[in-house]
């Protein structure tokens, strides 16, 4: 589980770096979306289908049942990979939306880093940025 955790984390970090630094070519976006996120989704699915029903008390009906999932290494790694995949998916959406709106990459970078590190907080920053778009000039010259 330690190796899978490390591989998934390193791959996701690499994906985020590519998303933030490189031009957003269609091939890059497709590789991240269908390659990296696809791999993460597959790893998550295998972990869930192999280990979920083996974890005593695992479920989603109470905090104790959710705690039981994360009490096993397999459940913890599955949960981590879940976060990695969905946060990157949201990051790609933010990047494409921001590009379409003409946001400068220097504005996008901290929002994407916040999404990588804190998921919904980065999404909130992006939504706040969009909400204040008319009041402040965030568009590229």
UniProtKB/TrEMBL annotation:
Transmembrane intervals: 6-22, 34-55, 75-95, 107-128
Pfam families associated with the record: ABA4-like
Superkingdom, taxonomy of origin: Bacteria
Keywords per UniProt: Membrane, Transmembrane, Transmembrane helix
Protein's UniProt name: Membrane protein
Organism: Pseudorhizobium pelagicum
């Amino acid at each position: 589980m330690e190796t899978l955790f490390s591989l998934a984390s390193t791959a996701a970090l690499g994906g985020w770096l590519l998303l933030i630094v490189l031009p957003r070519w269609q091939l890059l976006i497709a590789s991240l979306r269908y390659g990296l996120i696809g791999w993460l989704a597959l790893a998550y699915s295998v972990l869930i289908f192999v280990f979920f029903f083996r974890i005593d008390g695992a479920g989603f009906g109470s905090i104790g049942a959710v705690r039981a999932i994360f009490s096993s290494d397999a459940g913890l790694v599955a949960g981590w990979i879940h976060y990695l995949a969905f946060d990157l998916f949201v990051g790609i959406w933010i990047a494409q939306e921001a590009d379409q709106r003409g946001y400068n990459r220097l504005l996008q970078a901290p929002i994407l880093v916040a999404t990588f590190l804190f998921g919904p907080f980065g999404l909130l920053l992006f939504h706040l940025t969009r909400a204040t778009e008319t009041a402040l000039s965030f568009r590229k010259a």
